[in-house]
Structure formats: C-alpha cells, structure tokens
Amino acid sequence: MMQRDSAVQALIDKEACRELTALYARSLDRCDLELMKSVFHPDATFEHADHYNGSAVGFAEMAVPLMQSIGPIQHSLCQHIVELEGDSAYGEAYGIAFQRVRAEDGTSIDCFVGARIFDRYERRDGVWKIAARKTVVDWNLDVPTCETWGRGGLGEAHLSEEHRGKKDRSDPLYAWRLSGKS
Fold this sequence. Notes:
Layout: H1 2-29, H2 33-38, E1 40-48, E2 52-55, H3 56-69, E3 73-85, E4 88-102, E5 108-124, E6 127-144, H4 172-179
Parallel strand pairs: 1-6
Antiparallel strand pairs: 1-2, 3-4, 4-5, 5-6
C-alpha cells in the first residue's frame, strides 16, 4: 500500500508543478501581473533566452506591459515532463507562442516561436512554486498578418465582446468563472 501512496503523491506533486507553468502562460495572455508573480518564489530567477536574465519578479514587471502594448498573443503548452527529487522538481515544457507585432516598416507581423521552458520547482512550507526558469528558443517564423478566416462567418465583426479575448481581467474567463456557469 505504501508504494501506491507514494505513486499517488508523485502524481499530485507533478500536477502541482505543471499547473504553475500553465498558470504562467495564462498570466502572460491575460496580462495578469499578480497571477504571474504568484507562480514564483519571491527569490526566483528567470533567464528568457538573450532577452532577460534576472529576478522572476523583474521579468513579470517588464513582460506584462510589453504584452499589453502589442497585438493579440497566445502562449500554448505542449508536452511537459516533470522529474521529482524530493522537495525539488525539474520540468521541461515545450511551448508555442504567437504574438502580433509591428515591424520596423509599420506592417503587421505574426510571430510564431517554438520554445522550451526549463523550470526548477521547489516545495517550501508544503507549497510548490517555481524557483528558477530558463527559456530556450528552438525556432521562429515571422509572416505578414493574414487572417483570412476573419472574412467569413467567424469574422471579428460577428463576435460579441463576450466572446473576444482580452488582455486583462475583463477577459471572458473571469466573468465565466464568477457566474458559476458551465
């Protein structure tokens, strides 16, 4: 019975770590600074490719205004491996990020990035949080914006505000959760 209990606890611990990474992605897309800070221990470090190397709090305070200043964004997670070592764990999550940005010539560019996120999680006082993060970029693709689907029945003109994503707490997620609807 003890072996089963330790296996169940391992699943619970791995899921807690994976949820932190998923909440981080949500915090980026919703530009939710407090949520982003909440997934990291206060002394956590963050190395984001060649763009940033410092405290996780400092990264959050830089990233949220940047995400607010550009067009639509979405950060999606793919496979995510978590290896437990007592009160520490190591994760590797594959992800794809989409960001609509302005090129130097003023044209709209859709930027796709394939990256991997290396997290070191630590359980402190019974709570898992990210203690260190490193992001590595594997590929990217920049293309001129061309939303051809937007011309059809699912076009932006046909979407109510209730069904459009937002980069703040006015996003439909928050109202949906509060309504208790399913």
